[in-house]
Amino acid sequence: MKKIIIDCDPGLDDAVALIAAFGAKDLCVLALTTVAGNVKGPQTAYNARVIREVSGQDESVPVSEGAPQPILRDAVTAEDFHGSTGLGGIDYPDPVLPLSGEHAVNTIIRLCRDAKDAPLTLIITGPMTNAALALTMAPDIQSGIAEIVLMGGADTEGGNITPFAEFNIYADPHAAAVVFGCGLPIRCLSLDVTHGIRTTKARLAAVRAVGNKQALAAGDLLDASCKLEFSAKSDRDAPLHDPSTVLAFTHPHLFKGRKANVSVVTEVGEQFGRTVPTFAESGNVLWYETADDDAVFAALCGLLEGHS
Ligand code: BDR
Ligand code: CA
Questions:
Q1: d(CA 186, CA 102)
Q2: What local confidence, expressed as pLDDT, does residue 14 receive?
Q3: d(Cα 90, Cα 76) in Å, to the nearest integer?
Q4: What is the CATH number of the domain that holds 35?
Q5: Probe ligand 1: pick from 6, 8, 13, max atoms within 8 Å of CB?
Q6: How many domains does the chain have?
Q7: What end-to-end distance do the CA atoms of the chain give, in Å?
Q8: Which domain holds residue 197?
């Protein structure tokens, strides 16, 4: 089994990523750690508890609430794209199982230290505040992390929150600079690749056709994502941002990119939060540029079938 922690800010697409990960037969999700991002911190933690139960999981997968605000900048949220609850206004039963009671940063540090003999993968689908704090508080945890797979950034596609910046980076650029600069192997799903993976009506129908409770829930979340995307600004189907991290982990052959060193613009100005990849074989970041989008959606359906 491949061990992962998912550090997230659910969020509609984060929620789909979680459901997909729980459906993967060869993944062991050690913990969900949450961070302020799409909505405020307590709400992302609540949403992670909701999705843990929708996915049929129990307290053996702890949910730890993390940083309630970014390291230096003022907090920003993204209700336009996720609705006021972060889950598109979809009505879920209140979760029964509680938070772990441990701070997310401490959960990350503890699990990474435990994993020194068999390093785990840290999947990040939100602002990188928790990861940056963990790497700063306990640099020794690097030996327990095989790689980081994250959703964030943009180069050729331009930003989605400003003309230059993608939301997860813009929401905490200083944290992103720590993570990209930590030297660990990173695989990055930026807008350059996720904008090429769209939730068309046919793909949404295929997700729903999987038919189990979790696939239907994923279908509702993707549908809400498309509706909010249209109403916010776009004339295109919603991109598959966060689930692409899980799919790049389970199906790496479906994604192609180049090695790079990635810097983050942290000076206040029009480029604040921009990611700048400098392509070099020696870079620590695999910056994905293309994906086989039909196959990615087929793989998503495959993971959802795992819940049957
Ligand atoms: C990213 O920002 C959030 O709104 C999504 O959940 C995703 O992680 C896309 O830019
Ligand atoms: Ca997210």
A1: 26
A2: 98
A3: 22
A4: 3.90.245.10
A5: 13
A6: 1
A7: 19
A8: 2-305
